[in-house]
Amino acid sequence: MKKILIGIFCISLLISAPIELSLGARASGMGGAFVAVANDAFSNYYNPAGIVNLKTSQVAFMHWIYPEVREVMIDYATLAYPLIFQRQKMGFGLSWLRQGAKLEDFFGNTSTMSENYITLSVAMSLIRGFSFGLNLNRFLLNSQVGSKSGWGFDLGIYGKVTPNFSVGAVMRNFAAGYGDEKVLPTYRVGFALFLFPREAYRRESYQKKGKTYIRKIKIRGEERVTIAVDLGTKRNINEKEGLSILYFAGLEIHWIRPLAIRFGTSYNFPFSAGFGLYFRTIVLNYSYSANNKWLKDAHKISLNLRF
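The chain above was modelled as a monomer; its predicted structure follows.
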């Protein structure tokens, strides 16, 4: 009976959205601080304005494991596609989030509750390193007692203030709801430092005396160290009425190309850590988050394919 009640309580927590999901093992290993980083396929979720930061198109998948509450299931798949149209940086994304639970009563009867988010993302660069992003979300809630559906929007902005410092802001669930039931919006701002960049080069062709030559131009490469902090707000969370301030902070060290290690903390999971393995166009990430009041520990595995 206790296990059933825990499962019901946890899934009601997730679906009623008092817990801020940290999707993607990379961002989760950094405590979920990703609004001002937003440079991989999970930007669709954290800050759609960051899609223009991607250097290549990406497909990513994530699976979330709760050893203490195996009835809870969370999966995520996302596609991010950056492009340049008439010298204008743009980006598009499509993602799917499924969170739910499977429960069994004393008589062996099973019931399920699940919520699906289907998101279409659009991003466009503005001026001086700033970009704007928009998510159109479709909500689909299914349970034994009935089904609901609804729509909502997320608005994001990203800015590269200097080569080493970026900012971001997101408003989620703008004008969102299931029929007559409204979903409260949440707000989040982020700051990120990018330190110790690698040397990198790009090839450029040029003409000289009727012949074509190739030269290498030095550019700023990937950073070896990233430090990020997010602050957010949400109402009626974790048995507390009114407005709460949420915090997320993380560190990523990517000193050698094949391996990155990460550490983080947040109001939701006080301790997080993880690592990433880089194989040319494939990135495998893992994260471990500990000491959540209700869900205890969590493991996430995600796979990014770059093409």
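The two ends are 48 Å apart (CA to CA).
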